[in-house]
Amino acid sequence: MEISGIISAIVIGIVIGVLGRLVVPGRQHIGILWTILIGIVAALVGAAIAGAFGVADTKGVDWIEWLIQIALAAVGVAALDRAKTVQR
């Protein structure tokens, strides 16, 4: 992955994190910074997974890659929220 890919993954990761948070039902007890970090990680991991399956570079919008990234972000937000709730 090139530097431009990493920078775009970070920018897209912010959006992915917010979308992942919206997918999870109910109120989350984590801050926006955690949401953004989860989104960045989900964007990077999702891009790697999409690349491994050969769906990262398609003509037009990479819908499958976006869905993978959003799903990973939703799982990450839910897992961190659950961990924070258990600690309380």
Secondary structure topology:
Layout: H1 3-23, H2 32-53, H3 63-87
Q: What is the CA–CA distance across the termini?
A: 39 Å
**DSSP strand tally:** 0
Query: Percent range for helical residues?
Result: over 70%
* Shape verdict: elongated
- Quickly give the structural class: mainly alpha
Spell the H/E element sequence: HHH
The largest pleated sheet is described as:
none
Query: How many structural domains?
Result: 1
Q: Into which percentage range does the β-strand content fall?
A: under 5%
Look at the structure and give the mean pLDDT.
Answer: 84
How many H/I helices? Answer: 3
Q: Please mark out the parts with pLDDT under 50 across 5 or more consecutive residues, or reply none.
A: none
Please explain how this structure is put together.
- The structure is a single chain.
- This protein has 88 residues and is mostly helical.
- The protein has one domain.
- The chain is 77% helix and 0% strand.
- It is built from 3 helices and no strands.
- The protein has helices at 3-23, 32-53, 63-87.
- The longest helix is centred in the C-terminal third of the chain and has 25 residues, at 63-87.
- The protein is elongated.
- 30% of the residues are buried.
- The mean pLDDT is 84.
Descriptive key words:
elongated, cell membrane, transmembrane, membrane, 88 residues
